[in-house]
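Please decode residue identities from the backbone states below.
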């Protein structure tokens, strides 16, 4: 197969024709414009935008323009509010009453542990070695 047959069969354009079109210069390339909050930023033939998956976004496009909307973080605001409320929480008298009610069944064990600690401290005191 000759070079010409290959170009015709596969619709290839020879390199010298491409260079004569002026594609090797940036003058004939369409440039995109990037606007963020109505402020135009530097243009380039390709503008890449990377949006993390945690951020909710949507877009529309037609033949003339492409619009993308970023809706900020896609988070559970009720959960975050509950965490903030828990960090600012001040216990009430009902909370202390509930705590006493929870610890009441263990009061005998707690009193026994305190008693053992006091006895151990008193027995240990006479046997402590004096440092010279």
């Amino acid at each position: 197969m000759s070079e010409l047959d290959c170009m015709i069969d596969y619709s290839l354009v020879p390199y010298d024709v491409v260079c004569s079109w002026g594609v090797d210069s940036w003058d004939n390339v369409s440039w995109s414009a990037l606007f963020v909050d109505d402020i135009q930023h530097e243009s380039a033939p390709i503008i890449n935008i990377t949006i993390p998956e945690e951020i909710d976004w949507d877009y529309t496009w037609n033949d003339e323009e492409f619009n993308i909307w970023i809706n900020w973080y896609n988070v559970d605001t009720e959960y975050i509010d509950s965490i903030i409320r828990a960090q600012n929480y001040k216990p009430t008298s009902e909370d202390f009453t509930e705590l006493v009610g929870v610890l009441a069944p263990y009061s005998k064990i707690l009193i026994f542990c305190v008693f053992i600690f006091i006895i151990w401290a008193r027995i240990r005191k006479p046997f402590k070695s004096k440092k010279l």
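Observation: Residues 19 and 25 are 9 Å apart (CA to CA).
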